[in-house]
Task: structure prediction
Amino acid sequence: MADVTTNPAPRIIDGPRGRKPTRALSGRNIMIYGTLIVVALYYLLPLYVMVVTSLKGMPEIRMGNIFAPPVEITFQPWVKAWAEACTGLNCDGLSRGFWNSVQITVPSVFLSIAIASLNGYALANWRFKGANIFFTILIIGAFIPYQVMLYPIVILLREAGLYGSLTGLIIVHTIFGMPILTLLFRNYFSSVPEELFKAARVDGAGFWGIYFRIMLPMSLPIFVVAMILQVTGIWNDFLFGVVYTRPENYPMTVQLNNIVNSVQGVKEYNVNMAATLLTGLVPLIIYFISGKLFVRGIAAGAVKG
Result:
């Protein structure tokens, strides 16, 4: 009679399987979180000092404890920084500079993003003769120091009759913003599946049809990245504003410099801090509103090999 073979009983493994859970207070976690806390304090401490100083009166500031919270909160420094502080010959605060900055930033951001998105779209999907040379020139332009181009641009704007005007400054910001934005848009559009582009071509869509119907609806993250980069760069710019405009057209940053570095009268540190916070509010608000899209767009528009 044939031997009947039976399968051996399966081995029973004692205990749970998988990776051993890491301890919450391991040396690695302590090092990571400790470093993050130190870096956060490094950036938050000056901001804290600015806020509490802007809410104090001058008698309290003269007591010398810059880290102490205000005993009596006052918003008079903010009012004076906005509407009463002297920024040269005028004593109307930052309000005039704010509207100048708005008139400079809005068209500059719109024009630079519109042109750069078209450049990136064409370089990624519509290869033309000399495209690589054109792209190389744009990349080189992104790394040329601004200071090298100051005087030649002054001459060009003077000959065009635009020197000292807001229009001339808008053109300068638009041109200097295009190289890096073109690189971002080109890399983003290159990451879009090529099958979508080919299918649209088969269906008869042309250059503008594909751009407006397919590319734009899919490109919100990279447009947010471009907007934040341009708004931050243009709004916080001081060099171009002081070189290419006249006092009546100075942006907010130039007027802030005039308030902080004024040598007349008493040094009002609370007004200076309030003026600094007012100048930086616009980029901060835009970033906090669209921060998640900014991170997504940076990852999607990163440089690819």
